[in-house]
Amino acid sequence: MKNARDNRGQGTIETVMAFIILVLILGGMMNIWFWFNNQLVERQVAYNDTRVNAGTGKDDYTQFYSWNYIPKTLSENDVIVK
């Protein structure tokens, strides 16, 4: 009977550990998702600005319109759940 009780406790500990790991993985995935969403918004704003400048109707093609978007890097601190 003692072995059955020990196995039940081991199953509980394994379940709790698996749940904690799953929560950490899901939290990291959500952080990456939020980072990607913010990058998409920033990139779209920069793109729209260049399209407005390109469509001003000026015939001066000597002026170069550049897309001043510099993507931010995804660091380890952005992924780790805080």
Q: How would you describe the overall organization of this protein?
A:
The structure is a single chain. With 82 residues, this protein is an all-alpha fold. The protein has one domain. Helices cover 70% and strands 0% of the residues. The longest helix is centred in the middle third of the chain and has 53 residues. The chain is rod-shaped, with a radius of gyration of 25 Å. The model has no long low-confidence stretch (mean pLDDT 77).
Topology:
Elements: H1 2-54, H2 76-79
What features would you highlight for this structure?
mainly alpha; rod-shaped; single chain; 2 helices; 82 residues
Percent helix among the residues?
Answer: 55-70%
* Biggest beta sheet attributes: none
Shape: rod-shaped
- N-to-C terminal Cα separation, in Å? 43 Å
Q: Any idea what the radius of gyration is? A: 25 Å
Contiguous helical run count:
2
Q: What's this, in brief?
A:
The protein has 82 residues and is mostly helical. The chain has helices spanning 2-54, 76-79.
